[in-house]
Amino acid sequence: MFPEEVDSQTEDSALHGGRVRSFKHERGNWATYVYLPYHPEEEFRELLEELLSAARAHGVLLTPQEEFHLSVSQTVVLRHHWIQPFTQSLRAGLLHCKRFVCSAGRLRVYCNAERTRTFLGMEVCTGHAQLLELVQAVDRTMTEFRLDTFYKDPSFHVSLAWCVGDVTEQMKECIQELQSLVDDHEEGPFLLRLDCTELRCRTGNKTFRFPLEPEHLT
Ligand code: AMP
Fold it and tell me: Do the beta carbons of residue 139 and residue 149 sit within 8 Å?
């Protein structure tokens, strides 16, 4: 009978690693996305520092991601009472998905739909087919809950850092220079390797884990 109470909390991107809400934060509405976590090695952290300082020299101030991941869904809004059936549906859909490895090495600039955040990402070069299979399974759950499915032409990537606004053009001006830092890395071109052993679903402040099946269990 009464409208849902709206949280007075304003948008604070620092609270969610630069991901942007395109909806008001309302109590009972949970920002939700499905992803593969990336646990970076020391070499990656060093390279990221180099990339950020090179971008800074071009006047682009980037904030590193707090956690690194590869998204296989859009960020959608889930009502609290949907969380349980939603995660159950995801688990059922992912049951026979197998583990795999994917890698990324090419820098690319991404912007969110609202053009309020720009991201420096590393695009996937191997593992595309397996990622598409995961998206298909996740999309089935999204459709079941009438939520947005993933990009029709996805560019799978791990975002490294972000900044406020649409600075695509400035970033494109220095991307070649940044790419050469990746390519001329200490012992040959740096290749980000992602062991895809589990999928995760973050909803509000909760994280659900969905282990992928080891290859030999067929
Ligand atoms: P993420 O690191 O997964 O949060 O992605 C960063 C941003 O890239 C998100 O705001 C996405 O909307 C955006 N993006 C833009 N184009 C694409 C695309 N083709 N595939 C995947 N993400 C994209």
Answer: yes
Which residue is catalytic, options 96, 157, 185, 216?
157
4 domain-assigned: no
The boundaries of the domain holding residue 176 are 27-211
- Mean pLDDT calculated for residue range 158-179: 96
Q: Is the CB of 71 under 6 A from ligand 1?
A: yes
Known catalytic residue: 157? Answer: yes
User: In which band, very low, low, confident or very high, does the pLDDT at 14 lie, cut at 50, 70 and 90?
Assistant: very low
| Residue 142 forms part of a structural domain | yes
- Cα separation, 36 vs 121, in Å, equals 15
List of residues 6+ apart from 215 with CB closer than 8 A: 98, 99
Q: Mean pLDDT, the chain, as a whole number? A: 89
pLDDT at 58: 94
Confidence (pTM): 0.89
Residue 80 annotated in active site: no
Task: Indicate the top mutation candidate among 16, 35, 156, 157 to test ligand 1's pocket, ranked by most ligand atoms within 8 A of CB.
Answer: 157
| Residue 172 belongs to a domain | yes
151 lines ligand 1 (CB under 6 A): yes
Q: How many domains does the chain have?
A: 1
Alpha helices in 109-167 (DSSP H): 128-144
Mean pLDDT of 57-67: 96
